[in-house]
Each structure stands twice: as C-alpha cells, then as structure tokens.
Design brief:
Blueprint (H helix, E strand, L loop, with lengths): L1 H26 L2 H70 L9
Helix pairs in contact: 1-2
Length: 108
C-alpha cells in the first residue's frame, strides 16, 4: 500500500513536468531548442523526484520512533507534516522555475 501511494506521487510529479514541458518544446526554435527544453524538463523531473525521495525517506526514518512515542495518530501527523513541507518546497521551486519562463529563448 505504501509503495503504491509513493508511486502515485512520483507519477503525479512526472506527469506535471511532462505537461509543463510540452509547450516549451512546441515553442522551441528548431531541433536544438526542443532538445534543450527536453533536457531542462528531464533535469526538473529528476530534481523533483530527488526531493520526493528525500522527503519520504526522512519520513520513513522517523516512522518507527514516532509510532513508538505517539502511535498511529503520530504517524498521521508525520505524514501530514511531510506532505506539507514537500508542498511548500515544490511550490517554491515551481515559482522559481516559472519566473524564468519567457525571459530567454528555449534551449538557450
């Protein structure tokens, strides 16, 4: 169950990067520009996946001590806190990345 949930989060991240990259590739001037846009989208996807892995990895490391101290309610709070931190970090990353849109030619 946990692995399928984490797979769902990774799928969501990859789909969002793919959807965000499609207009950049379509606007690219030539093959080199499209490759540059794909490269940037791939790096963004890898960074997002690493962020998710680090966040959920930390949660996994804390799960046993939290469960021993606070039980199932503590685990739910841990999950909520982890998701909250990841939402804030991903939102900040999105704002930073989207601020660059339109400032330079695609693939430059």
């Amino acid at each position: 169950m946990v692995l399928s949930t984490l797979t769902g989060f990774l799928m969501l991240a990859s789909l969002s990067v793919g959807l965000a990259a499609a207009p950049e590739v379509a606007r690219a001037a030539g093959v080199a520009g499209a490759r540059g846009a794909n490269r940037a989208a791939t790096l963004l996807a890898l960074a997002g996946t690493a962020l998710l892995a680090a966040g959920y990895g930390a949660m996994t490391a804390l799960a046993a001590p939290v469960a021993l101290a606070w039980g199932l309610a503590g685990l739910w709070w841990l999950m909520a806190a982890t998701n909250g931190v990841l939402v804030v970090l991903q939102g900040a990353g999105f704002r930073r990345h989207s601020a660059k849109a339109g400032t330079a030619p695609v693939g430059a």
